[in-house]
Amino acid sequence: MSVRAAYRCSLLSLACLLVANWPPFAAAQTARQDPHLAYAFPAGGQQGTTVDMVVGGQFLQEATEAYLAGQGVKVEVLKWYRPLTRGEYNNLRMKLDEARMALVEERKTGNQRGAPTSQEVAAAAGVTADQLREMEIFRQRDQDPKRQPNEQLQEEVSLRLTIAKNAPPGKRELRLLTETAMSNPIWLQVGKWPEVRETEPNDQQPDPAIGQMPVVVNGQVMPGDTDTFSFTARKGMRLVIEAAARDVIPYLADAVPGWFQAVLTLHDSAGNEVAFADSFHYRQDPVIYFEVPRDDRYTLAIHDSLYRGREDFVYRLTLGELPFVTSVFPLGAQTDSEVQVQLQGWNLSQHTLNVKTMSRRAYRPVRWYSVPQADGTAVRFPLQIDYLREVFDQEPNNDAASSQEVTTRMIINGRIDQPGDQDVFRIAGGGRLVAEVQARRHGSPLDSLLSLTDAEGREVAFNDDHEDKSQSLLTHHADSRLEAVLPGEGPYYLHVSDAQRKGGPDFIYRLYLRAPQPDYELRVVPSSIIARAGAVVPITVFALRSDGFAEDIELSLVEPPPGFQLAGGVIPGQADHVRLTLTVPPNAPGAPLVLEMEGRARRGSGSRSVLTRPAVPAENMMQAFIWYHLVPVEEWSVIVSGKPGARPPFDLLLPPGRVKLPRGGDYLLSVRPHNDKVTASELRVALDNPPKGISAAIVSDELGRFAVKLTLNPDEVQPGLQGNLLLHVHRETTPPATEDNPNPRARRTDLGYLPAVPFAVAERKATR
Asked: pTM higher than 0.85, yes or no?
């Protein structure tokens, strides 16, 4: 696995870039009818078993193949199913009504007694037994006042997974494929514990599915539903009950809030609540830790906090005396260093691990480690790796008098040890300071507060919550960040505390102290591409800029297979995204490919230092109708299928660098036709999501020569604007008129995209 691939894997649990009403991106995603997956049930399976599952979504009828990342799992597509639509149901009902009326009239004429039977009516109407069954399913769904019809969930594809005994455990990405498209990914889990499924109804009478533990319970919460399970536990057992809901499906497309807010409760046989956990705190999914006080029959319940539900409210419950890590200290370490990591948690037999971090040359921002446990399992945890010097907070440091002296270029690993505690650090004055806490994003319950005071105790700067756009899976951005300018007279005191005045062994943080350091991260969408051989495909790359980073970012493919090329691969300084194109090779490789992209940019104007960052593939997920999240996924997957399709019959002849467009005027892009048969009068070009005020058209002269004319409206075009223009080409022909069709309509043939055209608009209006 490459460094960049490992970096992507480390970001599987992250989401990035929360934006409202992103018009070009959102429209492009919703207009297409590629297969869309909403859920899978069950959302995983045990090693060495065969699992039949249902994948729900939209536009799935043509799916003939399934692609699951990783090794050791075979996936078969069994069948497609969709319930009747209201129109289909009404048509069948009208047929039955008409047949019944006809039979009644016929019997009156023949002096027959008795109404026709339902079987006779169905036979007369030509309605099959399967159609009658589907009509009954429609009626039951339609009469359920809690059920809301949702087109994104209506279709189902049945899959069969054969999981090898040695299949690597962990989360995998599943996609469905048609002949012309690839779906978005959904996540499946390969595990080592036995798995069972809930049996409905289990809201009033608990499901006895839980026998021996450990076990994984798979279920779905329907509208207003509470799923309950009973099990026997012995005194002294230290149970961990972990729910996976958002971990399975991070966002639900049209729900408010846009995710399954799971709630767990545990009752004893007398009905007393003995444990409770929800997802409103620092974990996105609830976990119960329960030391069993006596032998008893216990009941576990799971429901949505608002008692919503439908097919995509999928969960996995893991129960047992399982090793479980609740906190890691420290959360990170410096490159080329040695550190002893301490683990807090339940049922851990090994609590420490001596770690030697990688060298600077093998740097990765996150590195995963494993600690073997007595039951034969291994708990895994991540460490954040950085170049800065690292220290530990030294108690007591609860006020200015006992404050710990630090510098402004280091990372402090600390802990708010008890409720009401605060850690205070003394900083000499001089220069600009960025202080940033990382805690909640790494699983710490700390809701940090940062306060900077001067020598007289006056507050200079303060921050509670700081929204980090690279962490939009977090529903509460509880990590703090402040910036300040420190005059040289100092000292200054930086106070770290919990906003709720809580504390304890798990309230761990990493405090970054540094000068502002311009930097960026990249995300590329879509995460899956399927295209005909030789096609040009639009893609979008987003730049998450920090600390005022405003340099151009040059994009390139990393060791691409032959034939793959980018066009327009520069994100202009200040821009947060760019649309560009990927050209795929003219020959179809036979299997999905995984591409990698990276960006390179100078650290600042005139700097020789270059920042190289991977472009992390992401999937667009909608929350609550208007909010879009780019959730990173593991692989940027590309399938090149079939023979080359129709393509534009000409190439553009572009000057080096960006095309300089006059603000208020025309610019001609020269072309090179592929053959002499190209007829300019039949060709049409259109800009795909162009900047305001720019349009394109084909123009020709009396000799049949042609070019692409770009026209800029000086009142609408922003001066100095930079980016890429994406040109879509069509051929429009009108068949000859005939007696039967004297006014034939023009026929339009899609010829695809041209490679992106980089441009820059002149500062001044052009004079004609």
From this structure: no
